[in-house]
Amino acid sequence: MTHDFHPTMLREYDIRGIVGDTLTEADARAIGRSFATLIRRAGGRRVAVGYDGRLSSPMLEAALVAGLNAAGVDALRVGMGPTPMLYYAASTQEVDGGIQITGSHNPPDYNGFKMVFQGRPFFGADIQRIGELAAAGDWESGEGASEQVDIIDAYVDRLVEGFAGGACRIGWDAGNGAAGPVIERLTARLPGEHHLLFTDVDGHFPNHHPDPTEEKNLTDLKKLVAERNLDFGVAFDGDGDRIGAIDGQGRVIWGDQLLQIYAAAVLKDRPGATVIADVKASQALFDRVAELGGHPLMWKTGHSLIKAKMKETGSPLAGEMSGHIFFADRYYGYDDAPYAAVRLIEASAKLGRSVTELRGAMAPMVNTPELRFQVDESRKFAIVDEVLARLAASGARVDRTDGARVLTDDGWWLLRASNTQDVLVARAEAKDEAGLDRLVAAIDDQLARSGVTRGAAAGH
User: Fold this and answer.
1) Which residue segment(s) compose the domain that 62 sits in?
2) Catalytic residues, which ones?
3) pTM of the entire structure?
4) Most Cβ neighbours (<10 Å): which of 31, 281, 320, 415?
5) Where is the domain boundary, 150, 177, 210?
6) Is 215 exposed, middle or buried, given 0-12, 13-18 or 19+ CB atoms closer than 10 A?
7) Which residues lie closer than 8 Å to 216 by C-beta, 6 or more apart?
């Protein structure tokens, strides 16, 4: 017996597809069987499984478990919840790995799988192995058991363990995603006053799309914070591993700005520690970490890549522009948005300033959103290489960690190839609008020399 997956499904960081089209029940079973085969061959026998609030998730979960069991691996089923709850199970239970069925922040007809293998992120070549084993039918056989366990209360207990924050007045928007029930239980345990939006799980996402990194999805939260005059507000993506935040004035606190706040708090306890952020993060963040006596480290975009780098460097804190925040300080090192919300309350207390003051104290920067340029998949990496070659010849100051990040007197600009789509991603940041215009012109010029025009931009 063999199985072939749709070619678009096995991605760099996870497995993802459109249910009933590129992702089927048979696919979920084959993924379970391949993953279980790898677990067995590494000496493991038991895997934790969780799922998000999408309509297709229970069906995919049942098929995945059947696949795990068919390869002789036991399933510990933690039920519906946010991705970090599954990561918590994988970190604390007697298991050899974990799989969360989730479509993350994609449209309602998408779904997919995020995986942990013996305590490390499972991505890149690992995911390709899933396809290779299935195509060859190279699977272990056996009979595994399936056990259900209710872990939500233990997880919420862990979120508030050793809580050292004050009483704040906060708005919470779960966006009808899988974090809703956790947020209800969490806020009941915290001091202060909490106003909740859309905590009922609904895979149709009737109120707004659950992606807090798009400002339009924060409209309801801004209204709530303004009407009730709250201290700040937090929002979550569909599977609860990414956080969005606004201050008391309704200003967005972007991922790299949140990281500035967290870094100031963590570095008080851990002077000189390494703080990691992805190549899309503001120069202001890297400068601030250095100013606080920390060691700033720029790394490649992608939650799996960042987690792996944290382990390697012993970093207590990392983050991405996209709202993935990773605490290894007093925690497990994975991206957990409800935990990040708790740590924001704590940081405000530790630094002795309101979240609004902390946001207001940051140097004003002007920047572009992510600019996306549709390109042919075969040209994607080649264009970046051509740009790097021209920059090297011109003597520009370039960081090559992930694509090209160019530092100029105006600020910086970035051009990199997306790992998940046939697009080039660009971003620029300067101290003023005139500087930003010059940086964007430099990006346009480089792309034009490689035959790409902005008319082909795919939007955010």
Assistant:
1) 15-150
2) 104
3) 0.95
4) 31
5) 150
6) middle
7) 208
